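Minutes, project check-in

Agenda point 3 was the complex the collaborators sent over. CS summarized: two entities, 613 residues total, and the question is how they sit relative to each other. Sequences were read into the notes so everyone works from the same version.
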Amino acid sequence: MTAVLSADNLTIRFGGLTAVDSVSFEVREREVYTIVGPNGAGKTTIFNLISRIYDPTEGRIRFCGEDITDMPAHRIAGIGIARTFQNIELFEHATVLHNLLVGRHCKSRTNVFEELAFLPRVRRAEHVHREKVEEVIDFLDLQPYRDQYIANLPYGVRKVVELARALCIEPKLLLLDEPASGLSVEETENVAFWIDDIKNDLGVAILMVEHDMSLVTEVSDRVLAMNDGRTIAEGTSDEVQNHPEVVRAYLGA
Amino acid sequence: MRFVFKTDYDQDLRFFKHEGYWRSYGFLFIAAVTAPLYLGDFEISELTQAISFAIAGLGLMLLVGFTGQVSLGHAAFFGIGAYAQAWLLASLDISFLVAMPIAAVFTGIVGLLLAIPLLRMTGIYLAIGTLALSIVLEQILKSWKTVTGGFDGKAVDPASLFGHEFNPDSWDFYYVALAILILVLALCANLLRSPTGRAMVAVRDSEVSARSMGVNIARTKIAAFGISTAITGLGGALFAHKLQYLAPDGFNLIISITFLLMIVVGGLGSLQGAILGALVVILLPQAITIAKDYLPPSIGHQPGLEPGIFGLILISFILFEPMGIYGRWRKIKLFFDIFPIYRKATFKRQKAYLKTERMR
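CS then shared the predicted structure for the full assembly.
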């Protein structure tokens, strides 16, 4: 199996604090790879490094063989990396449809002048985007919310909309930052099914950060445990959970 | 209650989503076209002025209401458009209809160049930066005598087409203004239903996720500023014909603030808001003048009555109706559309859950 994403010796320092300290890992095709760890372990920082919001102090990130360490953040979506956010970053004063169409932005090839005149080319492109968006809406059962404003939606639906927006990019790699945080048990089960479907039906590799260990065990192929920015264990979910270092990190020694 | 059945993606791309829109906007269009029949020359002239302000307001609306970047400098671009129009007509032998788009594009290019440094700032700093523009331009207009005529001002050649000379205070020029307004509205609406317009809204609501969706933040902001200033410049070019004589103090900070007041009162985030706001801003002083006659002299003859009332209106809108006149209209419309199930809380803003401040 080939690696979709590989992080090599990734390090970032914020002044004196080393948030991520030479972490290396590899996400393979059609794999759910989960990063776990206590708060402040550097999990979200890794996401921000991959989506190029932060520049790593050291180390390289490769995506499908291409070095993306110096790529500007707005080009990341275009090469096939989509992400969701821990605390939901949707466009609040826009409809669900509008949000999902923004997910198609990286695929749009029309320029401002064509758009001002709304040439037939723009209309055709809009139809293509809309069809793609409708596929995602069907996939995640968002039909009832299509024309609703995000500000009026409950938290659980917003989480799904954010996942849908990420899928509209047609990613090869999906970064999920705590997909189950704040969800009920039932909604968490839905997330588990969707993650399976995304992996098996859409063939997308998933890199996930999650605290809910039952979800992690259910969907993950491999798990990486971190503490204080360092890797402490890697392996299957059971192996990691029973690793003495991991137990110590969570329970204290 | 109204149910709209959708059977075609084009239905969501149309300007008018269902026949109700055709009725109300059709009525509005007929009312606007027949206005000279039931309004006097004075009212028509006021309407023409309101239209040129509305066009400038549409430009500002794209920037403030849709991209979320505040500008206190749009009077400067309004002025650049006006002076460019006057200069083009005086220096080149071209029709005013040809000069107008040139003036607009010129203003847009100036706006683009200024946007590159300006849009590195955000929020209050951007407001201060653009405020400086207003002040600087006023000085340039006063000092650059060869082009602007300095304190003496600059006369604008009358608009004429096929030998017909338009009277800016009469119905014929009103139709020119109306046609330009409709054209600008169509351009703005086109932009908002295509990727760039969506990217603008994305930048307004969450820069961090817009970037992760592949939106080039800097380029989107700069494009929005360019388009915004070009449209405002077009409004200025129209206004130049309305004024017939340009003076530097006609494009000062007060006008910038008036524009901002216009779009806030009209309703941020809607094109209709810019037009409603322009009508309020232009017609209100007239209403105050008329009201003065009926007020007791102790109130009616107070100095500063007009700015005072303007301020009061702005504050009341921010406190009681942040979505502006158009927001209020939408609420009334929704009340009837979904008739018995409208709740008071329908438009209440929910508290944002766990909105992160970490990655700003």
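Noted in discussion: Strands of chain A lie at 3-14, 17-28, 32-36, 58-63, 66-67, 81-83, 173-177, 205-209, 222-227, 230-235.
Follow-up: revisit at the next meeting once the mutant set is ready.
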